[in-house]
């Protein structure tokens, strides 16, 4: 029996991920045998379980979870860094572009889009990389230090979308649950440095909304925009709390995020 060709190993990794440490072999007839000496059945079960768990998260069936299940930490790492997350982001943005190609911003300048900031415009994957990709409980002080540094890279697919929205004449409002007093300057600097320039307003959580659920805060901010006469044509966020509630817009789009849940 000979060792599997590179292409066979890549095929196997496609299904089982890089962490599987596969030893795939090919018999003299060219058939791939299932010699996966270190891929235990338990591991295969975890992979299947974790895929189902991630679908439940993205579909808003799993709620109020505090950490990524221990057996899925490696799976989430593979998802975030192995290419599938970027592929999923591109697919979401491609679908949004199909939608925006069919609509026009009116000349009164009142057609608006809402974008969330954390893990929608700006990526915190580097921060979560050191925290087991959401396997560790949320640490508000550590996240504060990270966010104050203002070094989160743009999510490139969303930056591409952002450019299209500005180009088509939509007013873009960035609404984030970050505390305004603490994070305004670092967030604004971070957004500008990453190419998010020309938005209409960066709306952050004022003292009045401290401790209030994101859905309540963001609903109130959208309601205010509608009261000002803006028509919300689309809304994009990585959390369902960005997208549900009042004045949700003509359409909303969910950016993938299996690392944490914001109520
Ligand atoms: Mg977010």
Automatic annotation (TrEMBL):
UniProt keyword annotation of Secreted present: no
Keywords recorded for this protein, A-Z: Glycoprotein, Signal
UniProt keyword annotation of Signal present: yes
GO terms for MF: acid phosphatase activity
InterPro entries in alphabetical order: Acid_phosphat_B-like (IPR005519), Acid_phosphatase_pln (IPR010028), APS1/VSP (IPR014403), HAD-like_sf (IPR036412), HAD_sf (IPR023214)
Pfam families for the chain: Acid_phosphat_B (PF03767)
Assigned protein family: Belongs to the APS1/VSP family.
NCBIfam families: plant-AP
Protein name in the entry: Acid phosphatase 1
Species per Swiss-Prot/TrEMBL record: Zingiber officinale (Ginger)
Record lineage: Eukaryota, Viridiplantae, Streptophyta, Embryophyta, Tracheophyta
């Amino acid at each position: 029996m000979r060792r599997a060709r590179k292409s066979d190993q890549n095929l196997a990794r496609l299904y089982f991920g890089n962490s599987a440490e596969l030893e795939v072999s090919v018999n003299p007839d060219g058939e791939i045998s299932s010699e996966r000496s270190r891929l235990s059945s338990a591991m295969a079960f975890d992979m299947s379980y974790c895929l189902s768990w991630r679908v439940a998260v993205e579909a808003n069936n799993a709620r109020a979870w505090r950490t990524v299940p221990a057996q899925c930490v490696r799976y989430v790492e593979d998802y975030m860094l192995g290419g599938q997350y970027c592929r999923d982001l591109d697919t979401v943005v491609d679908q949004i572009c199909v939608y925006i190609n069919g609509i026009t911003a009116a000349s009164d300048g009142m057609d608006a889009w809402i974008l969330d900031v954390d893990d929608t415009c700006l990526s915190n994957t580097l921060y979560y990389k050191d925290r087991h990709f959401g396997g560790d409980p949320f640490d508000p002080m550590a996240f504060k230090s990270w966010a104050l540094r203002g070094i989160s890279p743009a999510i490139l697919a969303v930056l591409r979308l952002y450019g299209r929205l500005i180009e088509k004449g939509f007013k873009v409002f960035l609404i984030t649950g970050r505390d305004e007093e603490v994070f305004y300057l670092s967030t604004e600097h971070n957004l500008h440095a990453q190419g998010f320039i020309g938005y209409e307003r960066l709306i952050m959580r004022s003292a009045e909304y401290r401790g209030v659920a994101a859905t309540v805060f963001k609903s109130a901010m959208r309601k205010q925009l509608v009261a000002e006469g803006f028509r919300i044509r689309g809304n994009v966020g990585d959390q369902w709390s960005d997208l549900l509630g009042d004045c949700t817009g003509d359409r909303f789009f969910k950016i993938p995020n299996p690392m944490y849940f914001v109520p």
